[in-house]
Amino acid sequence: MISLMRVAIASVLALALVLPAVGPPAGAATPAARLVRHRLDTGLTILAEESTTSGLVALHTWVRVGSKDENDETNGAAHFLEHMLFKGTARRKTGEMDRAIEGLGGVLNAATSVDFTYYYVVGAGRDFDQLLDLQSDAIMNSTIDAGEVDRERTVVIEEISRRDNFPATLAFEMLRAAAYAAHPYRRSVLGPRTGIERMPRDVLMDFYRAHYVPANLTVVVVGSVPARDAVTKIARVYAPFTRPAPSRPPRPIEPPISGVRRSVVEQDVRVAYLALGFPGVSVRDPDLYATDVLAYLLGRGLGARLRQQLLERARVVQSISAFFPTQEDPSLFVIQAVADPAQVERAESAILAELAGVRDQGVTDAELARAKNLLEGEYIYEGHTTRGRAYDLGLASTIADLEFAHTYVAHVRRVTRDDVLRVARRLFDPHRYVAAVVRPRSR
């Protein structure tokens, strides 16, 4: 979970804080927590936490919109819009925002996922007012210039080309497309090339106006800025922002997978890229924590079971890993491997055999301890910086709630061997999974 929660990208949320109740900007934040939380009447949420570890401040804006909010015609709009947001406003011309942030010695970036889009700026705490003015102007007032849309379109298409020509990424995209028949998670975050090539500026503008609304926004500040001051300033800047919230129709319930779904593509590669996906759980499911531990136990680190058994001992694969992306709706438990093309079937059978061993016999105390320690250690390390902490808070607030951030580590520590066994039996059905393979072209 951790490595992918930081956006594909990602980490779990650093926890050790007692969160105060929602209150006004001047509401008390205990010394232990240092976190102030405030919700405007418009629905916009503000989270601010002062940190004295450096002179830096991280300013994040999370938008509760991703590829799951698209349809077949607008697929890729959330990511395309992410590219456009800092291209100009009524107050600033194209390139002016980038130059202003660079002039302050700051860093600007963004990312899009199935569930959310987020933007971040990291800079000196003394420049917080300017950073806030720049970022909030882009969020509220982007013009989505038609000329810039056409110029940026080539950049997005190049990203799609890299996706389609990078076999491990392509295998994961194939896996997701095959695993979901009804749920919008089946669509790629980047969208299809043909769709992006013909997507007009009006589609991006409509998507922007519909989804970039206060009720979908969480603004997070972590760093060398007093939390109450930060909340007061953010509330003042965003006070005029009053777009109505869009209606959110319920997403389709994905029917259970029946049988084994298989997708194979041939490319100009020398080895085979294998991905197996098993229907998993959502961020709200109590089995999430044991699922995260199981992913680390099987496929993360030098001591992971799949690496030890299939790479070090059997040598049936050249590399292997497992991961479980935490998402708002049920996601896939994924195992990816690289193997000799002649060994793909053997590798898949060997993976299924190892999963059957966990499902039937459970895991050892040593395996469980290693996985939990690695999971917690990476969590703490990745959430140590101002940017990492802001990411953790924003992610929790966007796909779950702050209680998730507050209790995650405690839940992981309570995972037992019986919990792992129960989850393995729930997930690893040898007759119900998805397989994707990118292999060399047939001669």
Can you tell me about this structure?
With 443 residues, the chain is an alpha+beta fold. Helices cover 43% and strands 18% of the residues. The chain has helices at 2-5, 77-84, 96-103, 128-141, 146-165, 167-179, 193-198, 201-211, 227-238, 288-299, 305-313, 344-361, 365-382, 386-399, 402-413, 417-427, and strands spanning 35-39, 45-50, 56-63, 107-112, 117-124, 217-223, 259-267, 272-279, 319-323, 332-339, 432-440.
What's the N-to-C terminus distance? 39 Å
Main beta sheet strand tally, sense and closure: 6 strands, mixed
Global mean pLDDT: 90
What is the CA-atom radius of gyration, in angstroms? 22 Å
The number of strands is 11
Taken in chain order, the helices and strands follow as HEEEHHEEHHHHHEHEEHHEEHHHHHE
Low-pLDDT stretches: 1-32
- In DSSP terms (H or I, runs of 4 or more residues), the helix count works out at 16
Which shape, going by the Cα principal axes? globular
Helix content range: 40-55%
Can you list the strand order of the major beta sheet?
1-2-6-3-5-4
Range of strand content: 15-25%
Structural class: alpha+beta
